[in-house]
Specification:
The complex is a heterotrimer of chains A (197), B (180) and C (132). Chain A contains 5 helices and 8 strands. Chain A has 197 residues and is of the alpha+beta class. In chain A, the strands form 3 sheets. A 3-stranded antiparallel sheet of chain A has the order 2-1-3, with helices on one face. A 3-stranded antiparallel sheet of chain A has the order 4-5-8. Chain C has a domain of 39 residues. Chain C contains 4 helices and 3 strands. Classes of the chains: A alpha+beta (197), B alpha/beta (180), C alpha+beta (132). At the B-C interface, helix 1, helix 2, strand 2 and helix 5 of B face helix 1 and helix 4 of C.
Chain lengths: 197, 180, 132
């Protein structure tokens, strides 16, 4: 599925100076693709720094500390600091849902929660509002999540979320471990009729 | 070879990174063989020395005094290290930044709960005013190296200092490079 | 002329502080103040966050006595939920607290006070550290 949300999957294609996101690029016959190079590392780190600077990612006090894809990317890409000024936006924490919470401070707007909600669960509760840095993940018509009449409380969005933005209520720092394997299991079972754990 | 002059300082933070430094236990004796700690919370010196080789800076820049001190330290220090997440990212100290200014935190702590003569701290020249925006160290002065972690585990500090003592540019990777 | 004596920073204590003394015309102390200059505003920025996160945030109040803050916020959480924790949990918490007291006393003695007691007040400040 074409996404191109975070651009962290940038690759180099021989014969072109342009870097392209792998997730939205069609493979062609004879295409020579480089997935790692010093240049790519440099750009990926830059993009990652921008993600960190855009919201309030405080690993030390995050429910996903130690199990976070964003935090792991920083380690893998050798990001030891952010060279841009942080924006420190004032953002809400939505704790109205019975089972789950949403902390917009930790959201990277990857859209995984939206896609899993629409295309795997089929509830279409989660969506985007706004543009650019003002974008937010919303529930239904930008209502408190707990008041959503479409949410089935399945929790797929929580497990799709790469950071601590979506979490199970009751977890404290470092306790929120996501299990994307569950989502893979459901999709494989549905599409291929294979029940592989 | 001259003994290395190491300074440490704590700005807006919890002192946890210094505690992690002390967690190096007996390795501190190894360190003491080649280096002197010339300034810091564990030393009784009041003035930052005219020239230091390395300064580990814990905490974020949170008040006017931190800004002045950091400018002085930067001038007098060869290698400046952002020591721990507060210095590197602002971390917990910067959690008040989204509120926009220092006023909401001060009012919440000094005015709201006070039932007897509520007043904000005001001691010019003694109690430094808070900055409206807490700064990670690199937003206040140029930083040479970053040592992230909340706190950085003792082993990470050791790996970092060992490279520095060997005259190399410390380069943290893998498990040694992790925020939080 | 009144005179101010400023001790800044107060070193070898567990925390950030200054002391100011005011002397009157006769050189007698007329006022003595202890200033704690570290302030971050946990009271405010914790508002609106899930209370279950507090045992992770509040220990960052103080890296020297984090356990006190973990336990205090855990107790506040118990009170919010109006629950009683099991005896084993209570004992574990107490054990953890005692562990911190031991650790803190060792830190205070060996790294902060011992240099004065063992090396004497007259030792130059640079040598007056736990490594001598």
């Amino acid at each position: 599925m074409d996404v191109g949300a975070c651009r962290l999957c940038l690759v180099e294609i021989a014969g072109s100076n342009k870097l392209v996101p792998a997730c939205t690029t069609q493979v062609a016959d004879g295409m020579v693709v480089a997935t790692t190079s010093e240049r790519l590392q440099r750009y990926r780190r830059l993009l990652l720094e921008l993600l960190f600077a855009e919201r309030n990612h405080v690993c030390a006090v995050c429910v996903s500390n130690g199990h976070c894809e964003l935090q792991a990317l920083a380690t893998n890409l050798g990001m030891d600091h952010v060279s841009f000024p942080y924006t420190f936006p004032k953002l809400e924490v939505d704790l109205t849902h019975r089972l789950f919470g949403m902390d917009h401070n930790r959201c990277v707007l990857c859209g995984r929660c939206v896609r899993v909600c629409w295309y795997v669960e089929g509830a279409a509760t989660k969506n985007f509002s706004g543009r650019g840095a003002g974008s937010r993940i919303i529930s239904d018509l930008n209502q408190p999540w707990g008041e959503s009449r479409t949410c089935t409380a399945c929790g797929k969005c929580v497990h799709a979320c790469p950071t601590g933005a979506l979490f199970e209520k009751g977890t404290t720092v470092g306790e929120m471990q996501k299990d994307r394997g569950k989502l893979e299991y459901i999709v494989t079972a549905r599409e291929k009729k294979q029940w592989i754990v | 070879m001259d003994r290395l002059k190491i300074a440490t300082v704590w700005l807006g933070g919890c002192s946890g990174c210094h505690m992690s430094l002390l967690d190096l236990d007996e390795w501190l004796f190894e360190l003491a063989k080649v280096a002197d700690v010339v300034y810091g919370p564990l030393v009784d010196t009041k003035e930052y020395p005219a020239a230091a080789d390395v300064c580990l800076v814990e905490g974020a820049v949170a008040n006017t005094e931190h800004v002045e001190l950091m400018h002085q330290i930067r001038q007098r220090t060869r290698v400046l290290v952002a020591f721990g997440d507060c210095a590197v990212t602002g971390n917990v100290t910067a959690l008040r930044n989204p509120l926009g200014s220092a006023a909401p935190v001060l009012e919440r702590a000094y005015l709201d709960p006070a039932n007897l003569r509520p007043a904000l701290p005001h001691e010019p020249g003694v109690v430094p005013p808070l900055l409206d925006r807490v700064l990670p160290l690199q937003e206040a002065v140029p930083v040479d190296f970053y040592l992230p972690g909340c706190p950085p585990p003792a082993d990470r500090i050791k790996a970092f200092l060992q490279e520095l003592l060997a005259g190399k540019a410390p380069h943290l990777t893998g498990a040694n490079l992790r925020f939080g | 002329m009144p005179q101010w004596i400023k001790i800044d920073p107060v070193t070898r204590i567990e925390g950030h502080a200054k002391i100011t003394l005011q002397l009157d015309d006769n050189g007698h102390v007329s006022d003595a103040r202890f200033h704690v200059v570290e302030f971050r505003g946990f009271e405010k920025f914790c508002e609106g966050r899930p209370f279950t996160e507090m045992p992770g945030i509040t220990p960052r109040v103080c890296g020297i006595c984090p356990v006190s803050h973990v336990l205090a916020s855990a107790k506040a959480g118990d009170a919010l939920l109006a629950v009683d924790i099991p005896p084993a949990a209570r004992k574990l918490r107490r054990l953890m607290n005692l562990g911190q007291i031991l650790q803190s006393h060792a830190l205070s003695f060996f790294h902060l006070s011992a240099p004065d007691l063992l090396l004497g007040w007259e030792t130059p400040p640079v040598n007056g550290t736990s490594s001598g």
